[in-house]
Amino acid sequence: MANKNKTKLIVIIISLLALVVVCVAVTLHIASGRSSGTDSGVDTDLSTMSATAIYSEVSNMMNKPEKYDGKHIKVKGYYVVSIDPGTGKRYEYCLIPDATECCQQGLLFKLKKGERDKLPKEEHRFVISGKFVRKKAPGTDDPNAYTVMLEDAKIYKK
């Protein structure tokens, strides 16, 4: 009887250890932002993450942009255009939703040549990647004011 209990205990411990290993592996996969299908050259692939992980990563990108500066980011969101009424300048964004789509974040982008014809209709979902850059905000002397965007952005077919 004691041997049966020992065997059961060993099986339970091994099962729990296996579960912990799987949980750690999944967490590391999400944190890295990569999947086996990630394009080479993409440093952070938000297009394959869960909505909760995306929200966390985008918050980090906006709060600590220096960590992402120069990195290649891939993201899924909605295509949105904004026109500055004062200048008439057109700005294009990837609107990135969170799990409940209540706290969406817009990421400005500039397309590389030849990509414009791949853009979806406004407010339609798409996947885009580009180099994350942080630049001094125009029209201010504040050294802490900056804008972030994806440069040389590429549109992916669905």
Describe this structure as you would to a colleague.
The chain is built from 2 helices and 6 strands, in the order αβαβββββ. The protein has about 160 residues and is α/β, with parallel strands linked by helices. The protein has one domain: OB fold (Dihydrolipoamide Acetyltransferase, E2P) (Beta Barrel), CATH 2.40.50. A 5-stranded mixed barrel has the order 2-3-4-6-5. β3 and β4 form a beta hairpin. The longest helix has about 30 residues. About 5% of the residues have low confidence.
Question: Brief description of this entry?
Answer:
The chain is of the alpha/beta class. Helix content is 28%, strand content 32%. The chain has a single domain, classed as OB fold (Dihydrolipoamide Acetyltransferase, E2P) (Beta Barrel), CATH 2.40.50.
The total count of strands amounts to 6
Main β-sheet, spatial strand arrangement: 2-3-4-6-5
Number of helical runs?
2
Order of helices and strands: HEHEEEEE
CATH architecture designation: Beta Barrel
What separation lies between the terminal Cα atoms? Answer: 60 Å
Percentage of residues in DSSP E strands: 25-35%
CATH class: Mainly Beta
pLDDT < 50 runs, ≥5 residues: 33-37
Using only CA atoms, what is the Rg? 21 Å
CATH topology-level name: OB fold (Dihydrolipoamide Acetyltransferase, E2P)
Helical content band = 25-40%
Average pLDDT metric = 83
Based on secondary structure, the structural category is alpha/beta
List the domain count as a whole number: 1
Largest sheet: 5 strands, mixed, barrel
